[in-house]
Amino acid sequence: MSSLDSTKYDSSDLRGSYSWTEPLKGIYYGPGSVKTALPKLLDILGAKKALVLTGRTLHDKTDVVKTVENILKERNAYGATFYEIGQHAPIAGIRNGLKQFKDVGADVIVSVGGGSPVDAAKAILYFQQQETGGPFLKQIAIPTTLSAAEYTAGAGYTNDEGFKAVVTSPELVPAGIILDAELTLTTPERLWYQRLSTGLRAVDHAVENLYRPLVPPPIKHICYAALADLFKYLPASKANPQDVAVRQKLQIASWMSLWPLKTEKYSALGLSHALGHKLGARYSIPHGITSCLTLARVVALKAETASQEDKEWLAGALFYLRKPSTGSLENDILKLSAEIQRLVDDLGLHSTLAEYKVPREDVPQIAELAVGTKDDPTLPKVVALLESLYA
């Protein structure tokens, strides 16, 4: 892969690092950063042999995986590459990946790609620890989408019945994350355009963190900043897909949308995510697209159902989007909903449940699973919300 002129990206807005706490050792960002960050993280972890975990498209249609393999080979740290990780991380791929992880004697996973490889790596490490009873081994995540799965302690995967299942432990947070926008340049333009939908997943994270319980105010203000950048740079990336600085800004905005935060257990951020979890694996809808479908309408519903405090946080997003207030909290939230839908439409990402062949008769069950109980007073409104997604 050709190397870019790194001096163009020396601004601290585009290049640097950040360390948090155990088990995350560091987040490294910047065009070309994989070349220095991956060896540094291997040293920090004392890792000797890596299994590269990715999907077939990235493996077969780009040289991103080969770039990572070559860095590992230079360090004599390459074990093998497993690329049978499909969308929504089916359990069969996880089982096969765990077998290869053990067969090559790997002590670290380097995941490359979107949310599915990152979550599959967490699941493999979880099941490996359950088998051995020893310490959790580690993951270094190199995301090429904006889904932000690398910032959480939980992993979603598709079980044998076709439903979403989860594993969770604070030890599953990746030990290192590398945000290298240069790696995304080799992605075919058609695929990068599709991956703009994962930017709506990041918008979904940022918005739902505004009303997620136990999220402290500083994190919510970071989410406001994420929204400002996502609304600015997603259209810019569509207009000029080869602008690496814009791609780097989007990767950083994705990080801000789901800032590393210790929680007691892994769960959906809010209703839009809960609906996405129920729609995604069962009906083969990418998570970015589920956010395009559900988020604007969930925000509109919050104008009716949210607490006063949550309404204030949601309405506050307009200031960061440089949109004037209507003078009413409820109308400001409806305006935010409209801005989200406009972003989806402008990016050419509008879709319907009919396009994904979701049976209408399944709607009541999807709604009930998402809200968690038949007794939830909002259930009829959630059913109506899903019905509206057929148009």
Automatic annotation (TrEMBL):
Lineage: Eukaryota, Fungi, Dikarya, Basidiomycota, Agaricomycotina
Domain Fe-containing alcohol dehydrogenase-like C-terminal intervals: 197-373
PANTHER family attached to this UniProt entry: ALCOHOL DEHYDROGENASE (PTHR11496), ALCOHOL DEHYDROGENASE IRON-TYPE_GLYCEROL DEHYDROGENASE GLDA DOMAIN-CONTAINING PROTEIN (PTHR11496:SF97)
Pfam families membership: ADH_Fe_C, Fe-ADH
Gene Ontology, cellular component aspect: mitochondrion
Keywords, alphabetical: Oxidoreductase
Gene3D superfamilies found in the cross-reference section: 3.40.50.1970, Dehydroquinate synthase-like - alpha domain (1.20.1090.10)
Superkingdom of origin: Eukaryota
Protein name (database record): Uncharacterized protein
Coiled coil: none
TM region positions: none
Organism (species): Pycnoporus cinnabarinus
Molecular function in Gene Ontology: alcohol dehydrogenase (NAD+) activity; metal ion binding
Record InterPro entries: ADH_Fe/GldA, ADH_Fe_C, ADH_Fe_CS, Alcohol_dehydrogenase_Fe
Domain spans labelled Alcohol dehydrogenase iron-type/glycerol dehydrogenase GldA: 27-180
